[in-house]
Prior knowledge:
The protein is α+β, with helices and mostly antiparallel strands. The protein has helices at about 5-30, 40-55, 70-80, 95-100, 105-110, 115-120, 125-130, 155-160, 170-180, 200-215, 230-250, 250-255, 275-285, 320-335, 335-345, 355, 360-365, 370-375, 390-405, 410-430, and strands at about 30-35, 60-65, 90, 130, 135, 140, 140-145, 150, 180-185, 190-195, 265-270, 290-295, 310, 310-315. The longest helix has 26 residues, at about 5-30.
Amino acid sequence: MSMRRFSVTILLIVMSVFLFLNCVSQGSEITLELWHVWTGTRQPLLREVLNRFERNNPDIKVEDIVLDPSQFFEKVKVAWASGSGPDVAMNYLNELYGLAAFLQPLDPFIKADGKDLGQLIYPVVAEMIQYQGRTYYLPLLISTGNHLIYYNKEHFAEVGLDPNNPPRYHSEFQEAAKRLTRRGPDQRLERLGVNILGNSHSLRQLNLQAFVEQQGSGLYDKAMRTVLPDFELAVRTLEWMIDFAERTIGSAAESMTFGGNLQSGQHSIRLDQEHLYYQIVSSYPDFPVAIALLPQPDGQTTPRTRVHPSWGYNMSAHCKQTAEAWELIKWLAIEPDGAGWFVHQQNRLAASPRINQHPHNYSANPYWDVLMAATNYTVFNASQLVPGIDYTWARNLIGEAVEAAGKGTQDPRSALLVTRDRIQAVINEVLR
């Protein structure tokens, strides 16, 4: 063989090996499709989380597709029903029961990792997300409900209240709200101490729910089969809320129609959930906001709060790359370098205790210990939603009852009784 032919032969062999290895490399790369609703400022945060995942898993690429939150659930359901759609998608607890038929249970993957679900997320949250004895999604976030108060420290100082010593009990709360409320020379309301009855159906329901829960009950029983299980307590609570507004503002009806918000300076205190802090400081970095637990009934020395699972991630039943999809779900929901980084950017509560205990949280949010207290004092949790029940409809009905009682068009007992019976009838029909 001539030297030239030998050189050509060697070159062809080298090129063949290179092409073979390149094809093998390309063939081994896996692409996962992720659908989500992280729009706005959270979209680039998620992309950074995915970039980190891809750097840690160079053989996996993630194609993320953002959808309109108002259409997300239906689009995912339709896609999966047709055998297409994403490998991994976001979901909320309320949506789980309409999607379960299209999902893979995650329990075998958790078991293969040698873990128990209660080791990955808060045990009480692990209990709540079970559906027919199985785990279909891994939550990233938890919410406190309206068991927190956000308040304007400058308003407190202005009326002689200590900004570092917020009200702990209902009587102190009422006194603070009364002092913070301000009317102009014409007696028009200029500033509301606190809008305890809320200015939307959602907030009215959430506020009533929080005050009922801190007394050891709830708007539903733990199995979510019975509406207002302690009906008399719910009535007394709504009566107290109306009396609170009358004593601090002079008119419960006026409080519900007053506009503005905490950030505008027209409200001094707001009942809300843990995510409000990030929204305030990201848009109004100099706003003098502070956070405390929702004041408790007088004489109740140990707070009662509630947390519930929020957004998380699931795996479609038609996903073929299940091992890789499970790694992505863990990264998005519980891994410190993925989920932890995402949560830290927003100062929100994670479903993973390990993420919440990271020192970064305490340096980024001076009131992180308050949020942690909300998880530590959780005593009431509804464990299951009833498939087929529109809980948004039910929430709005309860909010309408609060509004009717506050405006005086119905007394609290009648308003809650009619609402309870309407929701209960639907639940009974579904369960029949």
